[in-house]
Amino acid sequence: MKTDDGRIENVRILITDDNAAIHEDFRRILATSAEDDASLSEAENLLFGDPAAPPAHHPAYALDFALQGQQAVQWVKRARADGRPYALAFVDMRMPPGWDGLETIEQLWKEDPDVQIVICSAHSDYDWRDIFERLGHSDKLLILKKPFEPIEVLQCASALSRKWQHERALEAHVESLEQVGEPGRQPDTDRPGHLLQSTEVRHRHDPRRDRDGHRIGHRAPQRVLGHRVTCAIPRTLAALLLVTHLPKAVGRIFLCK
Fold first, then answer.
1. What is the mean pLDDT of the segment spanning 212-220?
2. Beta carbons within 10 angstroms of residue 159's beta carbon
3. CA distance linking residue 57 with residue 20, whole number of Å
């Protein structure tokens, strides 16, 4: 959800790391409130004597923590069932004795294909080719090297959570467009030919067309060898059709003037 000033509110983020100290690092970085921002601006004013600038509003994230990949999957499954899915998950690459980061991400995407992922690792166990072979080329995946700076975590959280929100808004808009139809009646999309029939109905009510659906001022389609053709067919092409398909037949053919 967004506020009037564009802030992201109540975006859910899942931190998956086997080190509880890392959980606290993420909490200090991402769980800053508006009151904390105001207090920091006031402290800077007292120290440096500068006029207090308007506090920078950090997005308000709802954080959850998992020590193992299996636990993270349970969190994601529960969030989907509650209708409050996670926008983003930070996933450590090494989490003994359970799943590693790649296995965890594969399982997370099975439960929720829309969740954005940031891989956090201090090791070079996998290069990009290994990750690509396991996870495929995805725009929902970033890599964050440990030790990381707070600004890097904030940037990943802000960019990916906004991307997730925009994707959900687009999906909702497309769904609403698909449901648009006549009042009290859903379009019968399962019935074959419904699009063709609706087009024919529009043509019958089009003042630019006659009662047969042909545009006024244009000659109706002619027939050559039993096939409907428009008057734009060249004489040479009609003659070629006649020679090719009826070399011995004697018949009549109507050509456009």
1. 58
2. 13
3. 27
From start to end of the chain, where are the E strands?
A: 9-16, 60-66, 88-92, 116-121, 141-145, 222-224, 227-229
Same domain, 169 and 250: no
Alpha carbons 134 and 49: distance in angstroms, whole number? 54
In a domain? residue 29:
yes
Q: Give me the residues paired with residue 66 across strands.
A: 16
Reading the block at residue 236, the tokens are 């040479």
**Whole-structure pTM value:** 0.61
What token pair was written down for 246?
């009826």
Contact between 22 and 90 under an 8 Å Cβ cutoff? The reply is no
* Each residue's pLDDT tens digit, 74-126: 999 999 999 999 999 999 999 999 999 999 999 999 999 999 999 998 876 67
Going by pLDDT thresholds of 50, 70 and 90, the confidence category of residue 165 is: very high
Closest Cα partner for 239 from 250, 222, 255, 220? 255
Burial of residue 106 (number of CB atoms within 10 Å: 0-12, 13-18, 19+): middle
Give the domain extent around 228: 218-257
Which comes out higher in pLDDT, residue 134 or 211? 134
Find where tokens 């959280």 sit: 157
Q: The domain that contains 85 carries what CATH number?
A: 3.40.50.2300
3-state secondary structure 194-249: HHHHHHHHHHHCCCCECCCCCECCCCCCEEECCEEECCCCCHHHHHHHHHHHCCCC
Residues 6 or more apart from 202 whose CB is under 8 A from it? none
Count other Cβ atoms within 10 Å, centred on residue 139. 8
